[in-house]
Specification:
The chain is mostly helical and 190 residues long. It has a domain of 73 residues. Helix content is 87%, strand content 0%. Helix 1 packs across helix 2 and helix 1 packs parallel to helix 4. The longest helix is centred in the last third of the chain and has 101 residues.
Amino acid sequence: MTAARTPAQVLQEARERGSRDKRSRVLAVVDDMITRNHQITFAGVARAAAVSNWLVYAPGIREHIDQARARQQARPRHDRESGATASPEGLRTDLALARAEIVRLRAERDQLKATVQRQLGQQLDQLHTTDLITRIDELTEQNKTLATALETTKRTNTTLQEQLTETQDDLAAARTSLRRMIKGENRTSP
């Protein structure tokens, strides 16, 4: 038979269990960061393990993190010596080459851009020239049509003017004849 536990004992056991879980979580995160070659910092470990900052500085945990950081700091020197990572000089050279490539690509881009602009300008000029020629042809044809219509209208006007003059002459002659007839009738009647 087990003895009855007091609430204080239950609380103490729960705290110890929670502490063990958090510590094991921190150690697992450190091992994972080493495996993935992520930079190990106390704040980064605390954030990744979702624990408070004071826990990563607690005895037993701090030593484990310090050892992992020391191994990680020793690794780049070993990698540089073996050629696995680039040296600062190599990185500077790569950066200088990349910058030179960027300058060359920008110059090439500007040249291609200017060429495309010239070609588009020529195409637009040709398009406008074709449109202008078509419009000039349309206007010339319309001008010929209007000139022909004007000549026809002038001829019709001249003909009508001549007819009007004849009609006015005939009217004047008819009036004169009518007056003579009326005068002649008035003289012959008593």
